[in-house]
Every structure is written in structure tokens, then in C-alpha cells.
Amino acid sequence: MLTRYSGSMIDWKGKHVLVTGGTGFVGSVLVEALLDRGASVRVPIRAANYRALSKRRGEIEWVDGDLRDSDYCTRLVSGMNHVFHLASHRRNVDFHRKYCADVLAGNVDMTLALVRSLKEYRSATVTFFSTANVPPKIDVIRLAQQESSDGYVLGKAVCETLWLTAAHQYGFPLLIVRPVGVYGERDTFSEEGNVIPSLILKAEAATDVLHVWGSGKQERVFLYVQDLAESVLRLLDHDAQGIQYIAPPDVVTIARVAELIRDLVKPGLPIEFDVSKPEGRRSIASLPPHECLEGFSWTPFVEGLKRTYEGWKQRKN
After folding, report:
1. Domain ranges in the chain?
2. pTM of the model
3. Please, what's the b/e burial string for 168-197 (b: 16 or more CB within 10 A of its CB; e: otherwise)?
4. Among 17, 164, 198, 260, which residue's CB has the most CB atoms within a 10 Å radius?
5. Given this model, what pLDDT does residue 148 score?
6. Per-residue confidence (pLDDT) for residue 279, from 0 to 100
7. CB of 151 within 8 A of CB of 103?
8. Are 141 and 208 in contact (CB under 8 A)?
9. CATH topology assigned to domain 6-179
10. More confident residue, 76 or 92
């Protein structure tokens, strides 16, 4: 079990930590935060592509294998004080709907393999990264029966159920985090990607006007990736368990997001909203944070956007 110190703070020095999805957008930032705190980090990998962690790959224990393989997962969790499960089968919303069952199965298979491994090794604390798109009052059957089901969201909901029941039976501490719209410079930049990288690409390519889907009145909350990593570690410092939402307090409209991105990429570029295109939900649910996050210093959205854009430009050049 993890050693706790004054103020419930975890001393990560010398702790053995597994981060699945550690080379990814969010996972790589979490790995760096843990390394900076002195943790010994293990990351599963299927190909020698260290991505954002290339400069620090010598500080990490890399283990080749398939996260759907229970025997491999048993080797992964052996000796670990903490397991962070971020690896996921994810593309874009259209793909998630078209291949709903495949996306769901891909995510559930990894969770099942890890759960089975923890049946034999129960001394680790687990943090599972879910999504705030899972409804607060979840009904998995109703979600599955919808005419257009999102396999990613549905899979996360099923995985949450698996983790909660496993933690109850096997007795390991479990934290499930549901972050809102995460963004940052390591995100996947494509026109089919998340809102912010998609709009950055559209603005970069635009010659006369920036076209934005929907009315622009949709409200969103965005979470800078560094804040996500730090807030998760704060939750663990305060022994938070169960399902916890991670969401800054500031709400922004898509119109405002488009304006801020336009001003970064091509100041003065006209913006047009295409109301014939789908815009998703118009408003967001209130997501109360854990009390330990009430005084958290969130990165201002304008600053986060600037870092995201400048970081992306450095990557592509």
C-alpha cells in the first residue's frame, strides 16, 4: 500500500507505478509528473514508439505486450504500488458510433485483463481514467439501446462497472476520474479530432473564412492536460476514492473558442457558423468537484490555448 504523510500527501519517491497508455496524449504528461516526483514508472508498449516521452525513455521501464492478455497484465501489475489505467481504444465520434460494439469490446477487453491480474495481486491502488461524457445517472442498457450509441462512452461506463465491482470484491482502493474536454499540445491534431485541435487546423488552412459547425452558442468546459495530471495526483494525496469529476469552473461558448483560436492563428479572419451541421448538446451539466480541488489553480483558458497552439507548431516544424 502507498505510504501517506502529513496532510495525506503521498511520497512518490521509490513508489512503483504502472501507467497504461503512458505514451499517449494524457498518459505521457502524467508519466512526466510522476517521474518528477521520484516515482519508478513502468509503461506497457507494443512498438518502439516512445512519442512524447522519447527524451525521457531511459528513465522508464518499458514492457512489450498486449493489454488484452491477462498473463501479460499479471506481469505488468506485479510489484506495483499504483496502477493508472489510461489506455483506450479511441478514434472519433463517427467511428465510435459506426463500430460501437468493436470500440466497446476493445476497451472492455483491456479492463477485464487488468481486473483478472489484480485478482492475484491485490496490493495496488487503482486509478481509472473515464470520461465526463458518461451520464451522472448512468443506465448502460438504455445507452446501448439508443439508435446511435457511442461505443467509447458506453465502453467507459461498462469499464467503470467492472472496476467498481472488482474493487468491492478484491478490496483494492479505487479512484475513477471523469475529466471534461481535455486539451493540450500533445493532442491528435486532425479535422476529425477534438474541438480545439480541429478548429486550430481549420483556422490554419482557411484562406477567407473559418467555418464552425453549429450555432456557436453551445457551452463547454475545457481542461488543460497539465491540470488534469496535477489534479489527479491531488485527489490521490487526499485519499479520494469512487467517481470524481475533474472540471474547471469556467464555461465558454464554442463561438468564443473559435474567436480565441482565430486570434491566435489568423487574426481578423471572418468566422461563419453553419447551423445545418450538428452541434451536440447546447449546455453542460453541473459537475461538483471534490473539496480538495476547490482551491486548485486552473490554467486560464486563453493561456492554455496559447500553449497548445505554440506547442503544436513546434511539433510540426
Report:
1. 6-179
2. 0.91
3. eeeebbbbbbbbbbbbbbbbebeeebbbbb
4. 17
5. 72
6. 67
7. yes
8. no
9. Rossmann fold (3.40.50)
10. 76
